[in-house]
Amino acid sequence: MDDAKNISENIKRYRYQNKITQEELAHKSGVALATIKKIETGKSAGIRRKTAEAIAYALSVDMNSLLAPARKLTTIRFRSCRNMRSKESVISYIINKLDRYNKLESLTDSYLPENYKTVEPVAGPAENAIILRTLAGLDNISPVLDISRTLSMLGIKLFSASVNTDKFFSLSVGVKDGGPAVIVNNNDRLTYEQLLFSIAHEVGHFIMHSERLQEINNEIIWSEEDEADLFASHFIMPEEGLNIYWNSGKGLHWTDRVIKVKQIFGVHYKTVLYRLGNFDRLYECFLKEYKNGELKDDRDPEPLNRKLYIEERMYSMAVKAVNEKKITVTEGSEILNISKADMKKFVQSL
């Protein structure tokens, strides 16, 4: 068959989406494992139609989906560890989920307000953070209790991708490719604090560096990463709120005040130390003095419950589409990548 490259890329993408290994795909399709590996690596001289149909059936997709050229993103910023592999697979998975999200918006006529367009970035990340908080209806004291609703108020899409690695944190996609959207890794190994900070970090990039959204393999501009980090810390933990809650802890040991503030705002304890100033000295002292030196590494000693991260917009749109007969329960379960039984429960509960 022709279109071998498209088939190769799509098999990897749908296999990743369905969270199955090459061995499991071989078992489900009846195609030899060696053949699966050759197809995915592009080393197969040709792909018989019968083989492609068996693989498509095993992946629960039609032949057109397997043959179609994979969509590429041109306005993207990818936040991960430098040594992370399989970035392209993650990107393919994200594209598929973003397309599903946008399809639900169209089916249910549920478009977000484009409040972010009114923002004229100013000189400093902290100032930009306050502008965004105000647009989202937040004061300059309170913590961000519902990041999903906050971004919706700004007109920025947010959803998670369960990627089985703690080396991928988040990415942002520009308007040109169906955004603005922030996608965060909802892997169980990442804490609530990491999720919240990663989301705010991507929002900072979108607001301050949107003209430089870049291809996945472009060189990282570290000054922009620092600006996004500073934006995130002020967006989540505004200066006025930090001062109020820090001063309210007088009488506590200073390390306990750090923990109190971090739990109020949902940030890592190092973020609080950074904002207090003289980070290197405070960090060294914190490691020595917190519970008599019990803390041995950078892990958050008292992380918040991950259930605080609630993502509901995509689910509510899917339920609305089912109730309005725009899609079936089966189609809804496929869009959300959940079982048909779970989809029925969502429809009945909302």
How is this structure best described in words?
- The protein has three domains: 4-67, lambda repressor-like DNA-binding domains (434 Repressor (Amino-terminal Domain)); 83-311, no CATH class; 312-349, Arc Repressor Mutant, subunit A (Orthogonal Bundle), CATH 1.10.10.
- It starts with a helix and ends with a helix.
- By secondary structure, the chain is an alpha+beta fold.
- It is built from 17 helices and four strands.
- The protein has a four-stranded mixed beta sheet with strand order 1-3-4-2, sandwiched between helices.
- It has helices at 4-17, 22-29, 33-41, 49-58, 63-67, 87-108, 125-135, 147-154, 192-209, 222-236, 239-247, 254-265, 269-276, 279-289, 313-323, 329-336, 340-349; strands at 76-80, 157-161, 168-173, 181-185.
Specify Rg, calculated over alpha carbons: 23 Å
Sketch the topology as an H/E string, one letter per element: HHHHHEHHHEEEHHHHHHHHH
Major sheet: arrangement of strands? 1-3-4-2
Structural class, please? alpha+beta
Largest beta sheet, briefly? 4 strands, mixed
List the helices and strands and how they pair.
Blueprint (H helix, E strand, L loop, with lengths): L3 H14 L4 H8 L3 H9 L7 H10 L4 H5 L8 E5 L6 H22 L16 H11 L11 H8 L2 E5 L6 E6 L7 E5 L6 H18 L12 H15 L2 H9 L6 H12 L3 H8 L2 H11 L23 H11 L5 H8 L3 H10 L1
Helix pairs in contact: 1-6, 2-4, 6-15, 7-10, 9-10, 12-13, 15-16, 16-17
